[in-house]
Amino acid sequence: MKGVATKEPGPGRLRAFGWSLAMLAAVLLEGGAGFVLALSTLLIPLRIGIWPASWALSWVRTSADLHRLWAAKVMGKPIARPYRAEIPAGNAATRLAAFRSDPATRRDLGWLTVELSAGLFLTAIPAGFAFFTLVAAGVTLDDAVPRTPDFPVDHHRVLVTIPVMIISAFGLVVLTRPILRAYTWLQHWLLSPAEAVRLATRITELTRSRDDAVDTQAAEIRRIERDLHDGAQARLVSLGMSLGMAEKLLAADPDAAQQLLAEAKEATGLALSELRELVRGIHPPILADRGLAGAAEALVLASPVPIELTVELPGRPPAPAESAMYFALTEVLTNMVKHSGARAAWVRITHTQGRLWVMVGDDGRGGATMPEGGGLAGVQRRIAGFDGIVGVASPIGGPTIVTMEMPCQLAYALS
Question: Which among 174, 170, 176, 144 has a CA at the least distance from the CA of 157?
């Protein structure tokens, strides 16, 4: 049985050479930041080096993040961020103190040191191959064409430059991608968080998501209590009073008693309707009966904005994950209808590599953010309770794409 060929992660040969030049330019810029940092560190006791040191450290962290993004998006090798928190806005002294207090800053400085030596060497190799290939080709063409009888073909130089051209071109074509992979491995080794930092970050994330889940649950309980108190409970109290008055008037004024009983009957129907709405808000019946796919279809059909729905679920997620993702999708679609001004939208629900994905896109005005206390922040808190994440891509002018994902194993296959 023949094996299935799989494509190596990373760009093709031509794009790999382009990326090697981009990485070489990045290393040279990092060298400038390193020079400013070294010089400003010497001037910190004089107070005139605080601002340039803060700027240089900020650039080093930004550059490290760009390398992480490149490794994940281009080379297919994600690198986690090791930082405890974002550097706060403020004066240079405050920012410099925040940089100093973060252990990951020392790791970034170590990365910068190796980047300016081994990283510079690796990224310069493809450029060197290209340079020698072009120079050898130019010299070969110049020597191989006789110009005058006094300047015949220089066979000795041609015999030297042709092998140089061939070897350089071979290295450029064959070795650029392995060199980029080696450079990516170096970035991963230097920029990944230490195991202790990774565990501490993970504990912090789990603690925060647990607290958010507890707060969300408490808020949901308060909402249910408020809806019961203001709705069904008030109607049931009114129903009891109407029945008591009808009982007293039954013998003396049957017509008035009959009217009170009719009002009590109407109040009973309204109370039952409100209880059904309350139960539907806790766990919609359509979600229990038809799963996330059916519930999403109902949301799409009820939306005033035309939505194209694509569902690729080979089974049903567990009920808690299914419910959380349904209410998150409901909140996102509600925000889209209220604020985006979209004329069309799409929803895609998939399950790949042990994760449940829901993506919502629209052609609205864009500019969506996740401010604290906003609807998308609430979606993030709900999904975080299941170790999930929410991503928002919404440039000004649109389009907007909201991605929600959580680890989730399908409970059972669909028939």
Answer: 144
Query: What span, in angstroms and rounded, lies between the C-alpha atoms of 180 and 198?
Result: 26
Encoded tokens for 245:
């008055």
**Is residue 109 packed enough to be buried (19+ CB in 10 Å), middle (13-18) or exposed (0-12)?**
middle
pLDDT digits (tens, 9 = 90+) for 184-235: 999 988 888 776 666 766 666 666 666 665 666 666 666 666 666 666 666 6
Q: Is the pTM higher than 0.70?
A: no
Spatial CB neighbours of 311, under 8 Å, sequence gap ≥ 6: 292, 293, 296, 297, 348, 349, 350
β-pair partners for 310: 348
One-letter amino acid for residue 376 of the chain = L
- 46-79 pLDDT, tens per residue? 778 888 888 889 899 989 989 988 888 888 888 8
Measure the CA–CA gap between 316 and 395, rounded to whole angstroms. 34
